[in-house]
């Protein structure tokens, strides 16, 4: 047993006081007392209410200070305005752990925000751990207590759940009662004034190492999450990575469209919306992201009752051809495979099934199949080595023995270790079959696509987990070693920030690229045609002329780039055109514009690379098609930074531009290593807090080298 | 009343004979008789069975010829082997309409295929209309008869359904009984030996014009389809287009992954799998494609009970913030919008709702909302002009009045004409609320995402239908007018086909492009360097050298294209390289290789265009990114051919390359009209049955013109 965690008194209290306990049966202050008593809580319960003698047979105390001992946990159900005062009493008495059920805080606006801030400050001063406010409370099964004012969990099992929303919790409670899916812990967070999801995860990880040997049949403790915000992205990912090694985690987080609405400061911003970062971050630490509530319910059922398959190969047994064919489609789409049945199994099936049955997976036992035919087919297929999981489909045809078939499945599931899931399709008739399956803890879904989708996600996790075992340990939070030339970069950034600028100009950007040792074309600022001519003579034609100015992010958009200048005449024309343009622009805007000349690099594949700070997860790297393709192709992939060369190579491989770079249709590969080096170097800029993003678009990758042509730097706002 | 349709005696028989009627209660031959009698069929029923006196109280006849009159319909439930003989008797008696329930035909292999062919031949000779074999029969509510051996439909309504699978039908029957969703007609097709889906659709269209004034509250008769194959794609689309003008159609067709597995003969083939063609075809005639069975059930419920919203603006009323936020996400993703509530409605809501409630859509009536608060909010929001449909979300919180709220919704739905749908989230507790909603025909879904997804599909159809009213009539089946220069093209194609070739060589392809009047660069076959040099002098450098040979589809893959040849020296080197290559290749392959020279066109945007025959729907047009981008970008869009210039322009607009062509980031647009003209001309090749596909990749589109550079023609196999 590990040393006691500081949250143990909260979730495993020996005594609980309910402040605001009420005699009125419909009030929260009554329901919470009733729930605690009826949930089999073995400790002491102290109702606190100055106006009541007793609540549900328990003597009431007029105030917290009057309690005969110091309770481990105080649960508060009084109006928001009185809570701070009560906390003072609670603290004085020595109770450190508090659940605030009451609403009326942050969620109601200014007044509530102020109240909540006061509570947070007080809790911090006194070292109090508060769950809520505006939450439904929590339930645990191991040390039984239903400290919610909801239905609670009627069935115990190995699922753990954290829900920021109390309402979602009530839906899950009702569903759990109906289906028999059991939970070991259910915590609602509410406003997360003090305790947030990572505190709960850390407590669980400490108290009962997830996936330890005491976990039930699946060997793991699944964790489901409904979160509207992530309080500390880095901590969350660190903990998630530890948990997903042994136990599955699945999560739903709404708010995609809000994220999409956020104004884009720059091109990079538009390609990597926050929600994309979240999905990628979860992906990297093995957390399944749910796309809807139905996914949450489906995965809860599946993870609660079934262990993950050890491979992707599914055998489908059906009494109808149509749903079987549909299942094949979805199996492919969800990253699973149809198991290939070998000759010996084929012969065994032949013995048991009628001639017209389809013995090729998906196996059609035909519409007149009774329970015994299902039994023979399932029993045989379980023994087939190439099968990792079995999916049984049933339509209620005229001969179909729905309940008997369900019982057969329940029996066989006990006999064989491989996972089996079902889809009984219909309404009234199949309900009884479903009840039998639920009672036997066989996951059953109304539609085959739901069953397969959930199984696909389960396999994704299992596969991720296996890959992790063989992969070198990842460091999510460390930054690359400090660069010796960092001082000069800092100076550039600080100067720009002092000038309240939000971006760097081309010259500054190029200086940084040079300091990083990247392969940039020769560049100079030229004041006259003669200077430009001299430059061209020195580095050789062709050259590119560009306008350069701070704040001028998309230069191509204002016609500020002229490429392919080969002759003196072309240079003259181009220079005078930009000169005119720069004068015009200078008048309109309040910044000065320079003309820049650059050696034109040989043609190659244009790649976009970038780094960007993310408010939740620290920082990310972007790779994708560059130049004018960037938006057309929509190819940009992101990953949490920092990543090493080989990790980046894998990411590049998942982009379309990566396919081109690796030598499309047998042509010679491009200088991928040099490209990766650019990104590795770029990541060293993440030391500089002044930098919010740095994008290079394009890196021109030829067969021999990677030219860094056009950088763009956005500074962090000075307030932060 | 229109003239009687030839299928009327099948679906509205005055008398029915059951051949194979049985006294054994579990046999099909018994169940079918029982179902017909118990379904309220008002005509006469004649059981035919030589061994029985009576079945369910009806006197049996020993054989068909012994019947006292000629029945309108014969239903057959005897073993497959005896059916042909029976058909002869039936025909002799004068019955033209037959349902064959028996299995044992095409689906069991060679023997059954033969039996089925005999029946088809006999039916064709005698003019008999046969439903099945291997089907579950049919049910109609208007002229009540349950001519299936399944549960049938317990609830009558306005839904019509065609299912190729009897098993799927049994699932829907069971679900219908459970939910109360009602059908007017349900037809199972089985093997479709004679009658197929288009026959049923045509009959429905003729008998009761779909969407005519006698349709029920929604003003339409929705049609649901479960099809594993489409028998006649063109007929199907013609009928679908007529039906979807007034009534929604939704369809599920499995087999995507099978389609994907089909060997690809060529690049074009890989980009436009059959399944993509189906999706596009359905899209063009306004048929909703379902992605899973759950979609089918959800849309059945929604279309049976609700009329389509007249706009996309949804108001969400919820007693929980979390699900409301999630709904906003999905509303955006499904092509719907959150309605904007105006100030007057806002004030009205303020009066009824507590201060903490969110009055901005999605409207949060808070967790303690009783039925009356829901009522006030819903009633108010129904009157808001900007709201097209209302979605009510409910989580079973401690105060929530589930049944009362359901009753309130039922009452308000009657009062207001706008559609209202619900999602009550949970298990046991919400069941009673759902029952009330079902009884009132308010569509309710377990998860908000399901409700919104279904509503989104409904709105897609409604919107499509409105657009059709204002769009010029489309002709799906006509071909472009015959080209005068067609003879020469025919000659080329026929010659190639006689030589058993599957493709044309470059020279033939270019000749066709020239005949079509397309802007091709000067091209010649050259036998010597000197010929190549002369050509270059005439048309001017740069030039391109290529290898040309029948069967050599992807020339770039074998290094057979050398571009950018500017000097005599480069030409010499290139020629000798190709000469060597062609010798090598000629040895390996059994075809001769020529060297082709071509004027190199100025650079531009490379576009792929093509035409292709589709086995189901006739022919299609492809447009997308061309050149080496083609596969990387995955941009190809398809449409049914032929299409006129403005229709093609719309299609082009939906591609990424279309965005580039229209002048990316404010630069001048490319020669789109010339590109469209290329496609219009290309479609005229569809006259030539010998041609299976013709692809131009790339068309190089510059700011002034569209150069047709590289054509590729695949011939139809000569067997067809």
Structural notes for this entry:
2 copies of one chain form a homodimer. Chain A has 720 residues and is α/β, with parallel strands linked by helices. Chain A is 40% helix and 19% strand. Chain A is built from 25 helices and 29 strands. In chain A, the strands form 6 sheets. In chain A, strands 9-8-11-10-12-13-14 form a 7-stranded mixed β-sheet, with helices on both faces. In chain A, strands 24, 25, 26, 27, 28 and 29 form a 6-stranded antiparallel β-sheet that branches. In chain A, a hairpin with a 4-residue loop joins strand 8 and strand 9. Chain A is flat. About 5% of the residues of chain A have low confidence. At the A-B interface, helix 5, helix 8, helix 11, helix 12 and helix 16 of A face helix 5, helix 8, helix 11, helix 12 and helix 16 of B.
- Separation of the first and last Cα atoms of chain A: 43 Å
Shape of chain A: flat
Mean pLDDT over the residues of chain A: 87
Structural class of chain A: alpha/beta
Total number of strands of chain A: 29
| Major β-sheet strand ordering of chain A | 9-8-11-10-12-13-14
Radius of gyration of chain A: 32 Å
